[in-house]
């Protein structure tokens, strides 16, 4: 399953095998390994910074698991629906080991089902979105290299120095499944745009910018909207270079993903302007996270007393600009005090 990938303008050549390793005859592909690495790094970032968003790390695990699993499922469904070619069997539809995940489906599924999981685990939805969208950029920036290993999701011909060529790109461009705007032609024997590289760089650059902006955010959901705008801009441009997208308007080369990207950018800008005006001059206050242990005590007390037991205190907040160490200290003190109170009330309730 190896192929030779060359970058003629740079004088580079790589021998790439899609299989990372095998276990008892079962092949594990680099595509899955890279997605897993992106997910793990994203989780590491989320665990380090969740307290600064008022999100409890233990409860976040459940939300991340649900969002990740259902996000992958939705990414596959979106890919199948938007793919310009058909599938021969149900196995071809569900088999993702060789690739075929659409990021917009993953975003929609991850955020949608993640929000439901947040309600279940009593986590704040918009701060969780802010944290998650930075994690998306980490995962996307790394996961896109799976497309390089698979030699998929590339663009049309280019004379730029970093143009890429392989037998895999040549075979794909000759098989008739290529989607191009009306009047455009492509030569399978010439280098193509490595669009996976463009998107990887775009996503990692976006992550750095949002991470640096994290302490300056103005309202809950601010980072999530900026993610939609940044990623939408990049995706609209990069999608226009690709040869495997579903064309909505062939005469002008408008692709389905470009329409989604444009809507994300326009909607994101409109909402960003609206909420920035609405929160002008007001510091963003973050509610301190209630630990999973105290949530369990709260539930137990509610079951005993038969009535709601509030645990959030109005003064248990910090300004978003405060350093991480301050959030960790104040959150620990708040939960220690809350635990003492809940245990005392449980003892009184018998």
TrEMBL record:
Top-level taxonomic group: Bacteria
Subcellular location(s) of the protein: Cell membrane
GO MF, any single term: phosphatidylglycerol-prolipoprotein diacylglyceryl transferase activity
Residue stretches spanning the membrane: 28-47, 59-81, 101-118, 125-143, 195-211, 223-238, 258-275
Pathway entry: Protein modification; lipoprotein biosynthesis (diacylglyceryl transfer)
EC nos: 2.5.1.145
GO cellular component: plasma membrane
PROSITE patterns hit by this protein: LGT
Enzyme class: transferase
Entry annotated with the keyword ATP-binding: no
Binding residues annotated for a 1,2-diacyl-sn-glycero-3-phospho-(1'-sn-glycerol), in chain numbering: 144
Keywords from the UniProt entry: Cell membrane, Membrane, Transferase, Transmembrane, Transmembrane helix
Biological processes annotated in GO: lipoprotein biosynthetic process
Topology term for the membrane: Multi-pass membrane protein
Role, per record: Catalyzes the transfer of the diacylglyceryl group from phosphatidylglycerol to the sulfhydryl group of the N-terminal cysteine of a prolipoprotein, the first step in the formation of mature lipoproteins.
Family per similarity comment: Belongs to the Lgt family.
PANTHER family the record matches: PHOSPHATIDYLGLYCEROL--PROLIPOPROTEIN DIACYLGLYCERYL TRANSFERASE, PROLIPOPROTEIN DIACYLGLYCERYL TRANSFERASE
Protein name: Phosphatidylglycerol--prolipoprotein diacylglyceryl transferase
Organism whose genome encodes this protein: Faecalibacterium gallinarum
């Amino acid at each position: 399953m190896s192929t030779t990938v060359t970058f003629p303008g740079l004088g580079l050549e790589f021998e790439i095998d899609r299989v990372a390793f095998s276990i008892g005859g079962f092949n594990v592909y680099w595509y899955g390994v890279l997605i897993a690495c992106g997910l793990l790094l994203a989780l590491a970032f989320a665990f380090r910074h969740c307290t600064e968003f008022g999100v409890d790390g233990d409860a976040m695990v459940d939300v991340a698991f649900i969002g990740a699993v259902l996000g992958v499922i939705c990414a596959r469904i979106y890919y199948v629906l938007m793919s310009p070619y058909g599938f021969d069997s149900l196995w071809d539809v569900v088999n993702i080991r060789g690739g075929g995940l659409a990021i917009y489906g993953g975003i929609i599924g991850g955020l949608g089902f993640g929000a439901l999981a947040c309600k279940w685990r009593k986590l704040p939805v918009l701060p969780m979105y802010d944290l998650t969208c930075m994690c998306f950029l980490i995962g996307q920036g790394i996961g896109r290299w799976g497309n390089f290993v698979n030699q998929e999701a590339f663009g049309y011909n280019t004379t730029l120095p970093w143009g890429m060529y392989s037998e895999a790109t040549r075979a794909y461009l000759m098989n008739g499944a290529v989607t191009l705007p009306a009047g455009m032609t492509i030569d399978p024997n010439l280098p193509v745009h490595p669009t996976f590289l463009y998107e990887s760089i775009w996503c990692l650059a976006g992550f750095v910018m949002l991470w640096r902006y994290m302490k300056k955010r103005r309202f809950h959901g601010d980072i999530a909207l900026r993610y939609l705008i940044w990623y939408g801009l990049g995706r609209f441009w990069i999608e226009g270079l690709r040869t495997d997208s579903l064309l909505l308007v062939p005469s002008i080369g408008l692709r389905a993903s470009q329409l989604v990207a444009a809507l994300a950018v326009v909607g994101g800008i409109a909402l960003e302007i609206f909420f920035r005006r609405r929160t002008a001059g007001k510091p963003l206050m973050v509610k301190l996270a209630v630990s999973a242990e105290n949530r369990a005590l709260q539930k137990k007390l509610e079951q005993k007393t038969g009535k709601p037991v509030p645990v959030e205190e109005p003064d248990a907040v910090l300004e978003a600009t405060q350093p991480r160490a301050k959030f960790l200290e104040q959150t620990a003190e708040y939960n220690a005090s809350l635990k003492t109170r809940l245990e005392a009330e449980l003892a009184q309730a018998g």
